[in-house]
Amino acid sequence: MARVAGRNAVFAWFVGVVSAAVVVTLLVLAFPLFPAATQWIAQAGGAQPTGEPAPAASGAASDGPRTCRDLYNEASWAGLRWTDGAELAESTDPPVSTAEELVEALEPAVVVTCRWTSDEGEISTTVATVPTDAGAVAAAALPAKKYTCGDADGRVRCTRTDGDLIETIEAGGDRWVSTSQRAWHPAGYADGVAEAVWPAAG
């Protein structure tokens, strides 16, 4: 059987074009997956994902909690989340406190405010940085507002109860924590938060 001149060359050229088109199509389809794959490989190798800072070493003053989740151990977190109707709003809102004059005077630089609402009631906790004499200022000013102040592992803790409202203000070093619990009073709440903010004393 006679062979037609040029047929093999044309066929090979056609197959080459189709193959190249298939490869280009696959590359286009796979391109969106490249960032995720790169991030997965980096995490698997122990590297931090691009754009996210590496965690600071434990113990430094700047290592305090930065998010609401940082404030609670596993048991506390589960207890709060599983309370009927529980919802959490995270923000940098000013502290919720009846000690308004003290808050205005100290001007706490809010790191995070965690506002919990549920069928039980409300809890608002603020972590902030303050001048290092904030504890002394609080201890001098808050008793006039019916707070009881005392030493708590080298920090100043002031508490006030008014009906179903319990308020706690705690200051040590350059850190401040204030909590307002209205009707909802999880056991050991203030102590657990303090252990997260001042871990060396926990």
TrEMBL record:
Q: Where is this region: Disordered?
A: 46-65
Sorted UniProt keywords:
Membrane, Transmembrane, Transmembrane helix
Give start-end positions of Low complexity composition bias.
53-65
Transmembrane stretches in the record are: 12-34
Which superkingdom?
A: Bacteria
Name of this chain's protein: Uncharacterized protein
- Which organism's genome codes for this protein? Microbacterium oleivorans
Taxonomy-wise, where does this protein's organism fall, top ranks first?
Answer: Bacteria, Bacillati, Actinomycetota, Actinomycetes, Micrococcales
